[in-house]
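Weekly structure sync, notes
Attendees: PL, DS, HV (note-taker this week)

Item 1: DNA polymerase III chi subunit
DS walked through the input record. Source organism listed as Lonepinella koalarum. Sequence as pasted into the shared doc:
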Amino acid sequence: MPKIAKFYLIKSSLSQQDLSGAELLACDLSAQLWRAGLKVLIACETEQQALDLDEALWARDPEQFVPHNLSGEVTNFATPIEISWRGKRNAQRRDVLINLQQTIPDYVSAFNQVIDFVPVDEQQKVIARERYKQYRQMGWQMEMVE
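Item 1 (cont.): predicted structure, written out as tokens:
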């Protein structure tokens, strides 16, 4: 099975609920993936970013509810979406990694599909291009989504 890295091009710097375009899209994509029966890990840069995404997912309308938890939270059942940050991650198997970190997480090889983002900000674009090159060098199939 080929490993696929999808980069979503963020077209606007506008944000909602104090979330960036990439963070909002990460929430929407995680909901779509869960509804398709996949388990997702959202890898955040910081614990605060993870808390912000957690809050945004809880604030969705009831019909848009997405079962999720923060890494390290004790739950009775494994949730389909886990939100982690640098240095904090449960070891449960996941199908898709949504990467909001500046670098590629060292556990990326455990996944067959990665979703990453190309932000509007020029400095962030340079960092995203570097991740793109690294995925390609690791043999991942690259896809761009506009």
